[in-house]
Amino acid sequence: MVSDASQANATEPTPARKRVRDPEARRAAILAAARSVFAERGYAKATIREIAQRAGVTHGLVVMHFSSKEQLFLAAVPGTRDLADSVQGDAEGLAGRVAHAYVARMESADSADPFIALVRSAAGDQEAAKALLRAMREESVSAYRTVLTGPDVALRVDLLGAHLIGVTFSRYVLADGPIAAMPADELTRYLTMTLDGILFGSTGTVRSSS
Amino acid sequence: MVSDASQANATEPTPARKRVRDPEARRAAILAAARSVFAERGYAKATIREIAQRAGVTHGLVVMHFSSKEQLFLAAVPGTRDLADSVQGDAEGLAGRVAHAYVARMESADSADPFIALVRSAAGDQEAAKALLRAMREESVSAYRTVLTGPDVALRVDLLGAHLIGVTFSRYVLADGPIAAMPADELTRYLTMTLDGILFGSTGTVRSSS
Fold first, then answer.
1. According to the UniProt record, which residues make up the DNA-binding region (chains A, B) (predicted)?
2. Does B170 contact chain A (CB < 8 Å)?
């Protein structure tokens, strides 16, 4: 996520309320402000206005840098772009890489984590949730297209996303039942299996007889 | 769901506000009242008190018949018990039967459908959602145990449930993207594949090289 030392330093989650002149530092201040506002308000209720105020910049500057609330969310929240990054590599290990990145990312997330907040608040503000999921889907699909071919890549990626939404619901939002109770490495193992089936399973035949 | 003609008639969703004497008719009146209250209020906000009032019976009688709000929900809402019924049969065709039952059930559901209302409101009242999902899970697992054996049946059934929750979210709640856009029979075909992978996939090995 972080490309150099100065940026790593600037993205410390301390909201900068004073005016910041350096463009890179200003961008980092916007990202830090966005993380704290998304965590406090949830995705649906967060506004670019409040993020701009907290970063000490104008509304217009935020829009210039990130174009929309969805894009700002994707840039600010660790994990959404990480998942897309984990796609890169051979098709063979794809399910395992995504399963591993998802579990590693979610296990260290706290309950105020914006991604969990999104799944929670998708129920409340459907239009906001729809816009965000659409942005995440587009980003995912273009990442997967670098590894996968076929007429139904977008559909399989959407099914994979739905699977992870359902697992997030059980393990990290409701936090109840066998999915919530299993150790993280076992979850990774099961997700590798299920995601592999979603990405590479045949839709023409059901399981051959056993 | 409906075992005889008199019950079919009695379960018409017209709330009976007058006192009903016949035990079978009274049970049917409670179910009809429950369906309308769950549809209007959502699962979390529905109360046994209001359901009893609308059915023209006492709170105690509802509890005597159904023991809890979760059990009443499972009995009243078409689809939750249908899914468990569809499990019966050979292991070979299991994924296909469940996929078919899920799609058939959800395609005819309207937006006030209590099952969709549950997935929506799980975000709001977590304790209520947890209790209901626990009841559904128990019912599902005992149905699947008649067909499947193995140490991880409960876990695989939970993963299958999570998958259907995620698909419900995309297609029937947010109603956006490739999963929402595909024809019902194609969805059945893809779900047969994904559910088969969840139920019978191997966790020991990832896909052999291709």
1. 47-66
2. yes
Q: What is the pTM of this model?
A: 0.79
Q: Which CATH class is domain A5-68?
A: mainly alpha
Please tell me which residue of chain A has the smallest CA distance to B171: A162
Asked whether the beta carbons of residue A176 and residue B202 sit closer than 8 angstroms, the reply is: no
* CA-based radius of gyration for chain A: 19
Helix, strand, or coil (residue A198): helix
Domains A5-68 and A80-200 share a fold: no
Nearest to A189 among B179, B196, B203 (CB): B203
Query: Phi/psi at A77 (nearest 5 deg)?
Result: -90, 115
Measure the CA–CA gap between A192 and A146, rounded to whole angstroms: 19
Instruction: Tokens 């729809």: give the residue.
Output: A130
ipTM over 0.90: no
Tell me whether residues B200 and A179 touch, CB distance under 8 A. Answer: no
Does the beta-carbon distance from A162 to B166 stay under 8 Å?
Answer: yes
Q: Does B129 touch chain A (CB under 8 A)?
A: yes
Contact across the interface for A206 and B162, Cβ inside 8 Å: no
For chain B, give every domain's residue range.
5-67, 80-200
**How far is A34 from A38, CA to CA, in rounded Å?**
6
Residue B19 DSSP SS3 = coil
Does A166 contact B166 at a Cβ distance shorter than 8 Å? yes
Decide if domain B80-200 falls under CATH 1.10.357.10. yes
The CATH class that applies to domain B5-67 reads mainly alpha
